[in-house]
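C-alpha cells for chain A. Residues wanted.
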C-alpha cells in the first residue's frame, strides 16, 4: 500500500473522529433544550437531526478508511483518539467539564502511539508477496499441466 493511500485513510479516520465529536456536542446541546414552545421543539429536533447527520458522516468516513486500509488498527486508533481528544477540549470549552493531568498524560500517550503506528514503515505480508508470483491464466504458452494442478477458485460446475 502506498504512503499517500495510507495518509488518505488516516485523514478519513481523523475526519470521522471529528464528526463523531461534533455529533456528541450536538446531541448534548439537543438534549439540554427544554421544550416550552414550538420554536424550542424545532431547535431540539434540528440539533438532534444534525447529531444523527454528523454521526452518519463520521461512520461513513470511518468505514471508507477501513475498506481502503490494509489494517484496521491505524484507522481505529486515529478515529478514536481524535474523538477522545476533541471531546475533552470541547467539553472543557463549551460545557465547563474538568480533566486531570493524569487524564491528559494518558491521552498524550495514546496520540504518541498513533503517530508511531501511522508512521511505521510498511511491511510485506506473505500473501502480498505471493500475488507477484502468480501465473497469468491468459497466456497461451502456459503448460496445460500447470493449469490442471492449480487450485480452483470460485464456484464449481
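Reply:
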Amino acid at each position: 500500500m502506498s504512503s499517500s493511500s495510507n495518509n488518505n485513510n488516516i485523514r478519513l479516520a481523523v475526519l470521522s473522529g471529528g464528526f463523531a465529536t461534533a455529533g456528541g456536542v450536538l446531541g448534548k446541546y439537543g438534549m439540554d433544550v427544554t421544550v416550552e414552545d414550538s420554536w424550542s421543539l424545532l431547535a431540539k429536533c434540528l440539533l438532534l437531526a444534525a447529531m444523527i447527520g454528523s454521526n452518519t458522516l463520521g461512520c461513513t468516513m470511518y468505514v471508507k478508511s477501513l475498506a481502503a486500509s490494509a489494517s484496521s488498527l491505524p484507522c481505529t486508533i486515529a478515529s478514536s483518539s481524535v474523538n477522545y481528544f476533541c471531546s475533552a477540549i470541547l467539553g472543557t470549552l463549551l460545557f465547563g467539564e474538568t480533566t486531570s493531568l493524569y487524564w491528559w498524560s494518558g491521552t498524550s500517550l495514546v496520540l504518541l502511539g498513533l503517530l508511531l503506528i501511522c508512521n511505521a514503515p510498511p511491511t510485506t505480508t506473505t500473501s502480498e508477496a505471493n500475488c507477484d508470483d502468480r501465473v497469468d491464466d491468459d497466456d497461451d504458452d502456459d503448460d496445460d499441466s500447470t493449469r490442471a494442478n492449480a487450485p480452483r477458485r470460485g464456484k464449481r460446475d
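The longest helix spans residues 3-32. The chain has a mean pLDDT of 81.
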